[in-house]
Amino acid sequence: MARNVSHGRGGAGQGNIYSGETRTTTPRDLITPTIKQEVYTTGRGGSGNMMHNDPDRPEIARESQDVEVPPMRGRETPHHTGRGGAANAYIPTPDEEKKVREEEDEQLRRVYTAKSTRERSRDVEERRRGADADADADPERGRSSQ
């Protein structure tokens, strides 16, 4: 359902038709690219942010680089699009508010999933470092496992 939304200082040229429809997501949009490098960075820089890429679990490398975005501001909540006045007020319908709440909940779920994936990748890296340290401390054990 299209709605006329007024913005700016006023006048006939300040109105737009807002459909509220979003582009449909396709399966191709949901494919996460993978990192091919042996070592990758997970932060702004520095050796503490370097991780070894696990070729069996490429999703860990990619997701650990994803930046957590703050939850989106509800674009369907009541707001003004200009300097004020009744003509610049946008008040969504209950159905529009419900749809936005569902989208925001999905966005938060994705952020929490990304956090837990990063925590798993840290655990994998810590185990790898522990195994490397054990092999360095016991050269005989390191040779027998190779």
Structural class: alpha+beta
Instruction: Outline the low-pLDDT stretches.
Output: none
What would the principal axes of the Cα set say about the shape? Answer: elongated
Oligomerization state of this entry?
Answer: single chain
Q: Helical proportion?
A: 25-40%
The overall strand count is 6
InterPro entries: Cisplatin_resist-associated, DUF3602
Region (Disordered): 1-146
Biased composition (Polar residues): 16-27
Biased composition (Basic and acidic residues): 53-65, 116-146
Structure description:
- This protein is of the alpha+beta class and 146 residues long.
- Among the domains are: 32-66, no CATH class; 93-135.
- The chain has helices at 58-65, 94-137, 139-144; strands at 3-6, 15-18, 39-41, 50-52, 79-80, 89-90.
- Strand 3 (39-41) and strand 4 (50-52) form a beta hairpin.
- Helix 1 packs across helix 2.
- The chain is elongated and about 80 Å long.
Quick gist of this model?
Residues 16-27 have a biased composition (Polar residues). The chain is built from three helices and six strands; from the N terminus they run ββββαββαα. It is of the alpha+beta class.
